[in-house]
Write a structure and sequence with these properties.
323 residues; mainly alpha; 18 helices; elongated
Length: 323
């Protein structure tokens, strides 16, 4: 009944064809929207609020009402998302962008869900819509860059991550991801510079330490590995990979005691990991503890990828023991 009254009032004001009624008509649309909002007919309510905004854009009450409709679905979606109820989360986020087709955060979260569901085409579309309506939404640019990286479109990924850095130059993850993309396109100097920048912004960023450690190992820059990663020892930043890279570097520089300690720390963080067992074997062999070394290499040999290398070391130690 209330809805009919507002509709009739608006028709009557339209019939006068006089701008004097503009603000009154805007208020009528707003009140009409409130009726639908109270009935949980959010899409219809939002349509009425937008009509009110168009007629009286200076009245802050009307966009606030529209935002409340969007926020109701967005917040409900977040609750479902945190509970890992992704089906209902998706439904609520879809409603949020249905109510407001320019709502970037809704598109961003729909992109995350689509990517999680391996629907890359939808994820790409949602990220692009999020950016279309908010060019400064750096998380959407970052998500787009990650998706491009996953798809192997590395030049586009670099462009997206560069846009993130332009918007938020303190976002260390963007430097890390762009660095990885540079490395994948054989631009090692740029990649290393970005990884180092990521560490400047977050000195505890384990992934950057691991990535740089791997580069230095591949370049046989063992002093560089030790200089970089030794500062992480005994901290929460250290990982099974950083300890492994240190063990390898210490073995290569014949500092076997430190190599042994680091290989053990790597195994404490990831038990039964063949690469760490291999370096443990090398360290023990360097310390002339051949029986313990053989045991370590046997553990490494349980991984088919390391079986040949480990068996070679076992055979070498067995021959040496027999002499």
């Amino acid at each position: 009944e209330a809805s009919d009254k507002y509709q009739e009032a608006i028709k009557k004001m339209d019939s006068y064809n006089d701008t004097i009624w503009t603000l009154a008509k805007a208020e009528a649309y707003y009140q009409w929207g409130m009726v639908f909002y109270s009935q949980d007919k959010d899409t219809v309510a939002a349509h009425k609020y937008r009509a009110a905004i168009k007629l009286a854009p200076a009245n802050n009450k009307y966009p606030k009402a529209l935002f409340n409709v969007v926020a109701r679905h967005y917040n409900a979606g977040l609750k479902f998302y945190k509970r890992r109820d992704f089906r209902n989360a998706k439904s609520e986020f879809e409603k949020s962008v249905e109510v407001d087709p320019t709502f970037s955060k809704g598109y961003y979260l729909l992109a995350l869900l689509a990517k999680q569901n391996n629907d890359t085409n939808k994820a790409l579309d949602y990220y692009q819509q999020a950016i279309q309506y908010d060019q400064q939404y750096y998380l959407a640019w970052f998500g787009l860059g990650k998706l491009y990286s996953d798809l192997g479109h590395l030049s586009k990924a670099i462009e997206a991550f560069s846009r993130v850095i332009q918007i938020n130059p303190m976002y260390h993850k963007a430097f890390f991801q762009r660095g990885q993309a540079y490395l994948s396109t054989k631009q090692q100097d740029k990649g290393i510079a970005d990884l180092k920048k990521a560490l400047v912004l977050d000195k505890n960023y384990t992934l950057a330490y691991e990535a740089l450690g791997k580069i230095y190992i591949n370049d046989k820059d063992y002093s560089g590995v030790i200089s970089l990663l030794s500062k992480t020892k005994g901290t929460r930043t250290a990982s099974y990979k950083t300890y492994y890279f240190l063990a390898l570097a210490y073995n290569e520089t014949q500092d076997f005691n430190k190599a042994l300690k680091c290989s053990r720390n790597s195994l404490l963080k990831k038990s039964k990991w063949a690469p760490a067992y291999f370096e443990k074997g090398r360290a023990l062999a360097g310390l002339k503890r051949k029986n313990e070394a053989i045991k370590a290499f046997k553990q490494a040999a349980k991984d088919a990828r390391w079986k040949s290398s480990a068996q070679y070391e076992i055979d070498s130690l067995t021959k040496w023991a027999g002499k």
